């Protein structure tokens, strides 16, 4: 857009004048109004100077931004202009004389617009550089300075400040401009009152508004925050200023444009030679549009610009006021006004497009742009019917000229339009984030009833937005030119327009030699000859390249790079063009775009000839020989002749480089599309020393087109990773004329041709001789032979050799070189990655050519043949054997004996590695007792020493499995070497060691099956005062209180659980059990303790554990818990069993410790008891004697509980006391109930049922402990009977307590009533 005045196309923002930050004064010759008041001399030593520097930098940085940079955040955004210290704003001219006009009015003879000019940028510049909407005045508050020699007093200083403020305020008020004063102070805490007084003095003296007109900027504060706040405050007054300015413009317009409807544009009689009525309409519509921009009213701005645009378009049509019947337009063609009008129309078009994009209405902008091109391409200077002009590019219809040819003027104009639109689209992409192409539609819903305005978020009330509807979308959905593309697309169109202009210039230049040009054509030819078209196109294409690169569109970047290179060719800058073509060729080559690659290679050949780049030229010609290139047969012949001529020197070529450096031209076939591919394969992957192994090298020309004629190589080098095996094949120079007929020469040479024309040639190269050959690296030793090295199209040439050595080695062919030698240079074609064939076509199937005496040639497919051969020695034979029990048990230390037998006569040195899946393994039995995390899962490289010939060595290992049953794989690996003949390698593993592996499955089972069951017991320990311990004996004597009634209580609850253990022995072997015990887990919850005892005396060591028997075993577990605890689950722990195999069932006589097996136990649940009930019963009860039963009811909560008590009758007893009662029990308190009972019979009798209900918590508390001492066996229901299952009770009589309560809330107490002996 640099072709148009900047002020005409720049998007305007409010203008802010800044005074007081700079110390510059107006020039003496300046016509700007000056300040009459005395100006204060600046204090350069003041610390406020640094703040002024920050403010200047801030305003300068803000001026670098525009409306697009603050998109949607433009409230408070201004463009700042710096006024000189003594400069005032130009006052408004008030003149009542109608004949006196502005210096830029078309009516003023001294105006540049006189007489018919419409608009000049001077008017816009007046409001962007001279007349702001607001003025910011920065002034310093007085500060005492000892070094100040001016002697000015504070009173005089303040007088000068107020005088300046008053004068500037008056100057601003004349134009309706707002003045804002910012007082800068050097702030001290002690000066707060003085500052307030000073600011108040300024405000009252100058009649300033304290809220919106005067501000204080202290030293040390952030000036940017204050200015941001001030800008938002003054934004609305600034908009009002521009609104008032627009009102005055409309008032002026009414003087020149009548409002009477009978006058339409162009019909009012005007004086000859003056501006038409349409011109005045355009002028004032433009002014209103600019002012609307200043106040950021974009809708009004667009409307005024569109009105001006349509009116201006009419001025290029015929003049309706012309009564002589001619079609002469209002503007005279080719006049100054005509050219200015075109420029104004172009600027208005850019403005409208810019504002539509700014309002996020891209389709309206695109519609306006296309309308502008369609309307103005019909101007006479843009139409030319010269048949010599032809369009050379495919461009959209809206860009094509009205005529079929176009002119230089048209394409110059179109270039400017396209470039301007490209820059606008680029701006919208980067600043607004516009997603392109636009619009993006869902094709499946194209016929849905969706409002297109909401779909495209682009709406306008003007006639220019008619394309934005569903009909437009449906009509143009398949035309990409009817959608807004990214900016790179329009930059590309711009470059094409420049090419069209260049083409027209070339045609005109050619015509100048054939005919006499007119004066206008001569001037045009001279002006166009000064333009460097290629450089212009390159600059534009680079912009397009960057745009497509940012969008990651690789295809378009390659296309543009090719066009850029083409332009460099036009400039004869072949070196840069060559760099572009080289980069493009790499991409096309990697992606197999051979049709495009062919043209690029031709261009590379052309540029390399111009730059005398011999290496690049030869490489490009070699690649063009490939059958994949799209060339005619004649072209292939020419390229091959040219290549061979350059190599041989028959075609002279001037090199930039030293010819000696180009003696050898090295080309890697894997980097290009080659006309020949190489494949190397061995007939086996591994062989023994002194055993021949065959290999074949296959040269393939994979196309019937290339080479166009047979080509003969001078040498063929086959390079191995070991130079001792390198092969050099010479061409047989005795063969003068090469033919490719079928030949059969026994076991040395074969040539056949199949029905498809494929020639297969087999050559035996087994009989090689050692010779010294000169190479690039000097003289080297090769195995050599002379053969036929000619290749033709559609041919497979196979060289078969043989490898036989007495040294172990890993062989591989690392490269194959085809060499054409001449006196001038040598062409060396090298394939150095032989895992694949170097051709873009799919390689032929991997086949092995089999030749056996005089039998026909056989092609044997084999995909597994590779370019690798391992030559090894014969492996000495050893045997690996194992000895162990046929079954292993879980948790058992299982011994295994490994025996390694040396079947050779020579001694071997061996290393042993053993692994068993999911098991730990060791060679030391004592290591089994270590923690499992410290154990190893493998034994690696155990040195078992020397094994003499014909003898064996045994090694004992131990495995341990604690996981699961089933088969586990035992893997044994022995690595060894022959002693005294081979050097021992310290590092293992090593390829110099022989190895042998042995695998075996070990069957793991369980020694015995264990099942456990936990049963709650209705036997409870009496209420105790002592704390429970982890004692294993539950039968300690109770400490009897002398007082039968319980005075103190704890909150413990005791429960008993019976653990039943059932063990089934295995059917494989006998086992010995040492002990079985519980490993109780300490509860993690405070207030719970566990202990246990064994029910019955069992001596496990004395039991003969037969196979397949069942054994029961019992434990009694005591749980003591606090009744106030919440419900908790307790992990009991594990059952520990110590066992081992019976000695009679062990294979090895090895002392083995007892194995340990842990069986996890069940969990039990402990419930909370908010109400604790304890019962006290006398120890001796006799028939016919009254005894007292006492209940202690304790509230363990922190709330009052309402309890209901019921005592039921019983046939065995009569009782007295509360049969039913209700009471409130206070928190943490105890209520005691006494009942007198009279026994009616003797024996173990059930006491009357005692029921209690807690109404508050709706629960039935249970009795949690009793106190009762007896000296006989308890109730049979809870007795521990003696049986053969080793669960008998202790034989000695013991006094113990009974807590008889059912787990299911049924509370039953028993007492033993004795008969009374008289």
UniProtKB/TrEMBL annotation:
Q: Which Pfam families match?
A: Foie-gras_1, Gryzun
Xref: InterPro entries:
Gryzun (IPR012880), TPC11 (IPR021773), TPR-like_helical_dom_sf (IPR011990)
**Domain Gryzun putative trafficking through Golgi residue range list:** 665-980, 1134-1248
Trafficking protein particle complex subunit domain: residues covered: 338-626
Q: What is this protein called?
A: Trafficking protein particle complex subunit 11 domain-containing protein
What is the native source organism of this protein? Anaeromyces robustus
Lineage of origin: Eukaryota, Fungi, Fungi incertae sedis, Chytridiomycota, Chytridiomycota incertae sedis
């Amino acid at each position: 857009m640099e072709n148009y005045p900047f002020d005409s196309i720049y998007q305007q923002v409010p203008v802010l004048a800044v005074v007081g930050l700079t110390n510059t004064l107006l020039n003496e010759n300046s016509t700007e109004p000056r300040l009459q008041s005395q100006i204060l001399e600046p204090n350069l030593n003041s610390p406020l100077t640094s703040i002024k520097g920050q403010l200047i930098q801030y305003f300068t940085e803000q001026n670098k931004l525009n409306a697009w940079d603050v998109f949607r955040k433009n409230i408070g955004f201004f463009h700042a202009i710096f006024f000189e210290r003594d400069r005032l704003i130009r006052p408004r001219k008030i003149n009542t004389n109608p004949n006196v006009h502005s210096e830029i009015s078309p009516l003023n003879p001294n105006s540049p617009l006189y007489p018919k000019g419409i608009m000049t940028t001077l008017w816009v510049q007046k409001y962007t550089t001279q007349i702001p909407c607001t003025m910011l005045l920065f002034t310093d508050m007085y500060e005492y300075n000892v070094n100040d020699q001016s002697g000015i007093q504070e009173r005089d200083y303040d007088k000068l400040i107020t005088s300046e403020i008053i004068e500037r305020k008056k100057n601003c008020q004349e134009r309706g401009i707002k003045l804002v004063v910012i007082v800068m102070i050097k702030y001290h805490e002690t000066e707060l009152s003085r500052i307030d007084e000073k600011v108040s003095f300024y405000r009252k003296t100058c009649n300033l508004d304290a809220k919106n007109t005067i501000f204080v900027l202290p030293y040390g504060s952030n000036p940017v925050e204050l200015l941001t706040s001030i800008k938002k405050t003054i934004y609305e007054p600034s908009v009002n200023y521009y609104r008032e300015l627009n009102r005055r413009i409309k008032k002026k317009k009414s003087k020149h444009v009548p409002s009477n409807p009978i006058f339409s544009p162009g019909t009012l009689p005007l004086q000859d030679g003056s501006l038409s009525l349409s011109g005045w309409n355009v002028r004032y519509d433009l002014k209103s549009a600019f002012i609307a921009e200043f106040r950021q009213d974009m809708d009004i701005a667009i409307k005024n610009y569109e009105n001006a645009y349509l009116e201006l378009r009419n001025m290029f049509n015929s003049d309706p006021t012309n009564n002589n019947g001619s079609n002469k337009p209002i503007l005279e063609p080719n006049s100054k006004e005509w050219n200015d009008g075109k420029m104004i129309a172009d600027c208005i078009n850019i403005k409208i497009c810019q504002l539509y994009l700014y309002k996020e209405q891209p389709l309206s902008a695109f519609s306006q742009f296309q309308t502008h091109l369609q309307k103005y391409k019909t101007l006479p200077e843009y139409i030319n019917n010269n048949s010599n002009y032809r369009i050379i590019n495919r461009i959209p219809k809206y860009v094509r000229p009205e005529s079929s040819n176009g002119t230089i003027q048209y394409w110059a104009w179109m270039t400017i339009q396209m470039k301007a639109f490209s820059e606008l689209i680029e701006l919208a992409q980067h600043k607004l984030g516009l997603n392109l192409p636009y619009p993006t539609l869902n094709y499946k819903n194209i016929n849905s009833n969706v409002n297109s305005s909401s779909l495209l978020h682009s709406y306008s009330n003007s006639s220019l937005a008619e394309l934005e509807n569903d009909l437009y979308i449906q009509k143009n959905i398949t035309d990409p030119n009817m959608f807004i593309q990214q900016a790179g697309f329009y930059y590309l169109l711009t470059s094409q327009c420049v090419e069209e202009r260049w083409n027209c210039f070339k045609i005109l230049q050619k015509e100048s030699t054939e005919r006499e040009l007119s004066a206008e054509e001569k001037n045009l030819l001279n002006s166009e000859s000064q333009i460097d078209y290629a450089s212009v196109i390159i600059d534009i294409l680079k912009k397009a390249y960057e745009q497509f690169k940012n969008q990651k569109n690789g295809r378009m970047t390659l296309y543009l790079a090719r066009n850029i290179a083409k332009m460099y060719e036009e400039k004869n800058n072949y070196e840069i063009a060559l760099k572009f073509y080289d980069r493009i060729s790499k991409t096309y080559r990697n992606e197999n775009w051979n049709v495009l690659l062919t043209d690029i290679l031709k261009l590379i050949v052309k540029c390399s000839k111009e730059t005398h780049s011999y290496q690049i030229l030869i490489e490009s010609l070699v690649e063009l020989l490939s059958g994949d290139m799209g060339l005619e047969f004649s072209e292939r012949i020419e390229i091959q002749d040219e290549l061979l001529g350059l190599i041989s020197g028959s075609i002279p070529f001037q090199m930039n480089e030293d010819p000696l450096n180009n003696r050898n031209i090295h080309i890697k076939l894997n980097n290009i599309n080659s006309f020949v591919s190489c494949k190397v394969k061995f007939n086996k992957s591994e062989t023994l020393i002194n055993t021949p192994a065959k290999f074949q090298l296959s040269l393939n020309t994979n196309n019937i087109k290339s080479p166009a004629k047979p080509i003969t190589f001078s040498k063929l080098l086959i390079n191995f990773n070991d130079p001792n095996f390198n092969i050099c094949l010479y061409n047989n120079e005795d063969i003068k004329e090469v033919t490719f007929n079928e030949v059969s020469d026994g076991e040395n040479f074969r040539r056949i041709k199949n029905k498809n024309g494929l020639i297969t040639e087999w050559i035996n190269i087994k009989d090689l001789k050692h010779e010294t050959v000169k190479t690039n690296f000097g003289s080297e030793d090769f195995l050599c032979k002379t053969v036929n090295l000619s290749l033709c199209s559609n041919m497979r040439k196979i060289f078969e050799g043989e490898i036989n050595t007495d040294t172990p080695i890993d062989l591989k062919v690392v490269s194959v070189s085809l060499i054409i030698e001449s006196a001038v240079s040598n062409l060396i074609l090298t394939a150095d990655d032989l895992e694949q064939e170097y051709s873009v076509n799919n390689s032929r199937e991997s086949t092995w050519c089999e030749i056996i005496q005089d039998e026909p040639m056989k092609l044997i497919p084999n995909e597994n043949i590779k370019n690798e051969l391992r030559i090894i020695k014969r492996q000495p034979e050893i045997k690996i054997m194992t000895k162990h029990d046929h079954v292993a048990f879980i948790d058992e230390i299982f011994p295994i004996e490994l025996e390694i037998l040396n079947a050779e006569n020579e001694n071997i040195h061996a290393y042993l590695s053993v692994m068993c899946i999911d098991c730990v393994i060791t060679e030391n039995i004592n290591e089994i007792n270590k923690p499992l995390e410290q154990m190893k899962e493998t034994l690696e490289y155990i040195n078992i020493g020397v094994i003499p010939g014909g003898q064996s060595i045994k090694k004992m290992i131990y495995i341990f499995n604690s996981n699961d049953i089933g088969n586990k794989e035992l893997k044994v690996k022995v690595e060894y070497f022959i002693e005294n003949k081979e050097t021992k390698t310290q590092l293992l593993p090593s390829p110099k060691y022989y190895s042998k592996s042995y695998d075996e499955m070990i069957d793991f089972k369980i020694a015995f099956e264990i099942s456990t069951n936990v049963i709650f017991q209705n036997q409870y320990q009496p209420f105790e005062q002592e704390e429970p311990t982890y004692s294993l004996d539950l039968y300690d004597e109770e400490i009897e209180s002398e007082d039968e009634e319980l005075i103190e209580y704890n909150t413990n609850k005791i429960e008993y659980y019976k653990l039943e253990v059932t063990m089934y022995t295995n059917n494989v072997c006998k086992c010995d059990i040492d002990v079985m015990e519980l490993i109780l887990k300490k509860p993690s919850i405070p207030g719970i303790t566990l202990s246990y005892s064994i029910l019955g005396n069992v001596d496990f060591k004395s039991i003969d554990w037969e196979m397949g028997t069942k054994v029961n075993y019992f434990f009694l577990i005591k749980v003591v818990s606090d009744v106030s605890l919440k419900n908790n689950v307790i992990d009991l722990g594990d059952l520990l069993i110590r066992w081992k195999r019976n000695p009679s069932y062990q294979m090895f006589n090895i002392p083995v410790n007892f194995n340990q097996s842990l069986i996890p136990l069940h969990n039990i649940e402990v419930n909370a008891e908010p109400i604790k009930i304890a019962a006290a019963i006398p120890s001796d009860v006799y028939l016919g004697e009254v005894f007292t039963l006492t209940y202690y009811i304790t509230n363990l909560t922190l709330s009052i509980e309402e309890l209901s008590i019921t005592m039921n009758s019983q046939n065995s007893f009569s009782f007295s006391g509360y049969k039913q009662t209700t009471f409130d029990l206070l928190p943490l308190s105890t209520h005691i109930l006494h009942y007198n009972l009279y026994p009616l019979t003797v024996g173990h009798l059930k006491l009357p049922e005692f029921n209690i209900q807690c109404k508050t918590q709706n629960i039935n508390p249970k009795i949690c402990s009793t106190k009762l001492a007896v000296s006989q066996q308890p109730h049979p229901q809870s007795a521990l009977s003696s049986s053969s299952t080793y669960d008998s009770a202790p034989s000695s009589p013991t006094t113990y307590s009974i807590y008889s309560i059912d787990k299911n809330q049924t509370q039953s107490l028993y007492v033993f009533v004795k008969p009374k002996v008289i």
